[in-house]
Design brief:
The protein is an all-alpha fold. The chain has one domain (about 5-60). About 55% of the residues lie in helices and about 0% in strands.
Length: about 70
């Protein structure tokens, strides 16, 4: 995982646990054949692609609210 991508993504998703979960889920999707939402001239690992997608605003997340569950 590239440090510069990680630092930029942390500015968008500040909570480390949330960032890890978003990157993990998206990289699994990419590994199973989903198309990347960003273009790159270089070969990137799925985790780096997921970070770039976060940085470029191509994917987002919604925090879970416990009060809505009950």
């Amino acid at each position: 995982m590239r440090d510069e991508y990680l630092k930029e993504a942390q500015n968008i998703i500040a909570d480390p646990n949330t960032l890890i979960n978003v990157v993990s889920r998206r990289s699994k999707q990419l590994k199973h054949g989903n198309k990347p939402l960003v273009e790159s001239l270089e070969k990137l690992e799925p985790e780096d692609i997921a970070l770039r997608e976060i940085i470029e605003g191509k994917i987002s997340y919604q925090e879970w609210d416990e009060s809505e569950d009950s």
